[in-house]
Amino acid sequence: xxxxxxxxxxxxxxxxxxxxxxxxxxxxxxxxxxxxxxxxxxxxxxxxxxxxxxxxxxxxxxxxxxxxxxxxxxxxxxxxxxxxxxxxxxxxxxxxxxxxxxxxxxxxxxxxxxxxxxxxxxxxxxxxxxxxxxxxxxxxxxxxxxxxxxxxxxxxxxxxxxxxxxxxxxxxxxxxxxxxxxxxxxxxxxxxxxx
Length: 195
Description:
By secondary structure, the chain is mostly helical. The protein is 63% helix and 9% strand. The chain has a two-stranded antiparallel ribbon with strand order 1-2. It has a two-stranded parallel sheet with strand order 3-4. Strand 1 and strand 2 form a beta hairpin. The longest helix has 37 residues. The chain is elongated and about 75 Å long. 19% of the residues are buried. The mean pLDDT is 92.
C-alpha cells in the first residue's frame, strides 16, 4: 500500500515515467510497484485481468463524467429558472414553423429549454444506473478461483451492483454507446439553444 501511494504521488506530480511498451496504466503501475517493492508487487494482479480492469476503468471514468455533466446541467437549469422567474411577464412572439404564432412570455420560453435539459438530466441519471455495475472479478472472461469479495470491492469503489455474468462483464460496451447517445442529445439541445 505504501508503494502504491508513492506511485500515486509520482503520477499526481507528473514525475511518473509511463512506458508505452507496457501497454496500459495497469501494467505500468504493476511494473513500477515490482521495481519499488520486489516480487510481492506482482500480487497486485491477483484475481484480476486487464480485461476486467479496463472495463472497470471505463465505467469509473464515464460515471465521473455523468456526475460532472449533471452538475453542469443543474447549473444551467438553475440559471434558466431564475431568468424565467424574472421574465415571467415579458411578452414575446411565440414561433411555430419559423412564423409568428401566439404570444408567450419570455419566462415561458426559457422554461422550454429547462424542460429539454431536465429530460437530458433524467437520461443521464438513468444511463448512470447501467454504467455503475462493477465488472471486477470477471477476470479475463470466466471469473477467478481466488476467494475475492466482489461486493466489498463494489462498495469501496462506489458501484451499486456487481456484474452478474463474467462474459458480459468484460465484453459489454452498451453503456458507453448509451452515454454517447445521451451526450449527443444534450449537445443538440445546447446547439439549438445557442442558435
